[in-house]
Design brief:
The complex is a heterodimer of chains A (436) and B (73). Chain A has 436 residues and is mainly beta. In chain A, 6% of the residues lie in helices and 55% in strands. Chain B has 73 residues and is mainly alpha-helical. Chain B is flat.
């Protein structure tokens, strides 16, 4: 009887302990002995997960090597070497968070850095003594708020670029609205760039006197200012403004499950100093001066993109643009790229781009301008020419990361060869890495 | 005359395309959502667009920059 009584009490205690164990929080982590085979796993409690929190969504890195050669440099009046080497590196950090309305916000912070060497740059000085190299740094900032319910987004952007002879500040406002069925989208972007061109003249053409707020000074390409008393000191070189305002519009539409199209158009107006002070022009009489172009320019490019998914692994990406401006340039651009998906995560993309343009009415080659011309330039950017650009790109985006590195979710490598009928040829190799 | 005819034909073709679109459900957009089908420039093209805009008189209508930067060299 005693045994039965003790068994009932014991069973009752076990049941109470079990029920206690199920209702009370487990504090065993703190009561376990110092030496134990049990290893607690300190994984964060999912209750603390906050999808609204600011986090880095993606980091993009783009690097390029560009090399060109030609024989029509604008610095030497349409003759002379155009050899240029440029190395560009840019990084963009994309931050994402949700606001109180659960709208997605994206903040993109970018920084770019270029280093170049240009053979013609040395001939800003008549003796070829100027520095043939230079750098450019260009930070950018863009914020976009997206309302998924209404299908719209809007945002603001800011941009800056700084080089020895050129500074630029820019800002934009952009807006997009999807159609009710979410198969189409309209976007608009208003941009303004406010640039300053430093008035660095070819050494033999430096004005005898340059007036500034501080008085009358003589400037040199190196930035040395020689004052009236004969003493020289380093000071800022006078500059001239250039303003670019543009409105960009696009409308994209899904036609069917394999085809989509986008119409694009910009309206661009420029005012200010639109030439460059170290571009020489040689007249028919053999005398030289610096190029002189109108102080305003209106540009109107319109185009479309059309992408088609052919079969299961071929995509056709096409592009056409027509361009006209108030300087008399008319241009057509046709682009075709055919990515072939070798696997769902690896594609190879050969591409071809054809470009042609008519000459601006102010262009003439070396020693072809008349001294009586109002506007003149020998910059072959404004000449009549055709250009061909072809190459191939590779894209790798495996689900377990590139080279098995989970953080690197995408890699693109692209090579292109560019040639103009002006004899300018160039090669460019680019690498893009996307980190998550 | 031939150029104008080609332009008009292209416009009519594009308008027909735009008006003959079908309503797509989300699950029917798998091909259109493929990264290679994006109606924009690739990230890796960024510096190509840069040098093209400096070596050619035309620029714009490619969702890229329409100003800023010298491109002097």
């Amino acid at each position: 009887m005693r045994k039965v009584y003790l068994s009932i009490v014991g069973f009752s205690l076990l049941c109470r302990l079990n029920s206690y164990a199920q209702t009370k929080q487990d504090t065993s982590l703190h009561t376990r002995p110092a030496v134990s085979l049990y290893t607690p796993v300190n994984t964060p409690d999912t209750a603390t997960y906050n999808p609204r929190r600011l986090h880095i969504d993606e980091i993009d890195f783009v690097s390029s090597y560009y090399h060109q050669n030609g024989d029509h440099s604008a610095v030497t009046g349409g003759i002379g070497t155009e050899r240029v080497t440029d190395i560009s590196n840019g990084i963009t950090l994309n931050f994402v968070w949700l606001n109180k309305m659960m709208n997605k916000n994206t903040l993109s912070v970018g920084l770019g850095f270029d280093y170049h060497t240009a053979a013609s740059q040395a001939y800003v000085s008549a003796t070829g003594a100027s520095s043939p190299s230079g750098t450019r740094i260009y930070p950018s900032l863009d914020w976009t708020a997206e309302n998924a319910k209404k299908g719209n987004s809007f945002g603001l952007g800011a941009y800056a670029s700084s080089e020895y002879n050129y500074n630029s500040l820019g800002a934009d406002f952009h807006f997009s609205q999807k159609t009710a069925d979410r198969n189409g989208e309209f976007t608009a972007k208003l941009q303004g760039y406010f640039d300053e061109v430093k008035l660095i003249y070819p050494s033999e053409l430096i004005p005898n006197t340059t007036s500034s707020a501080d008085g009358t000074v003589v400037t040199s390409a190196s930035g040395t200012v020689i004052s009236g008393s004969g003493s020289s000191h380093k000071a800022s070189i006078p500059s001239s403004p250039r303003t670019t305002l543009s409105a960009s519009f696009s409308y994209s539409q899904m036609i069917n499950s394999r085809l989509q199209i986008m119409f694009l158009g910009d309206v661009v107006t420029q005012h200010g100093y639109l030439g460059l002070p170290f571009h020489r022009v040689y007249f028919t009489n053999g005398k030289d001066t610096v190029e002189h172009l109108p102080s305003s320019r209106f540009k109107l490019p319109v185009g479309f993109r059309l992408n088609y998914f052919l079969g299961d692994n071929i995509i056709i990406r096409s592009y056409y643009r027509y361009y006209a401006d108030s300087w008399g340039v008319r241009s057509n651009t046709i682009g075709l790229e055919v990515p072939y998906k070798i696997t769902p995560f690896f594609s190879i993309s050969p591409f071809y781009r054809f470009y042609n343009q008519s000459a601006a009415r102010y262009f003439a080659p070396y020693e072809a301008h008349s001294p009586t011309d109002e506007y003149y330039t020998s910059n072959y950017e404004y000449s009549k020419f055709n250009a061909n650009f072809f190459g191939v790109g590779f894209r790798i985006a495996p689900p377990n990361g590139v080279f098995g590195w989970q953080g690197l979710h995408e890699m693109e490598i692209r090579y292109g060869h560019y040639s103009q009928t002006t004899d300018l040829v160039s090669d460019v190799v680019s690498l893009s890495l996307g980190f998550k | 005359m031939i150029k104008r005819l080609v332009s008009v034909t292209a416009c009519i073709f594009l308008m027909l395309l735009a008006t003959s679109c079908v309503h797509l459900k989300e699950y029917q957009k798998s091909r259109l959502n493929d990264s290679e089908m994006a109606l924009g420039n690739r990230k890796v093209e960024k510096n190509e667009l840069n040098f093209e805009s400096y070596r050619e008189a035309a620029s714009g209508a490619n969702a890229g920059k329409t100003g800023g930067g010298c491109g002097c060299n």
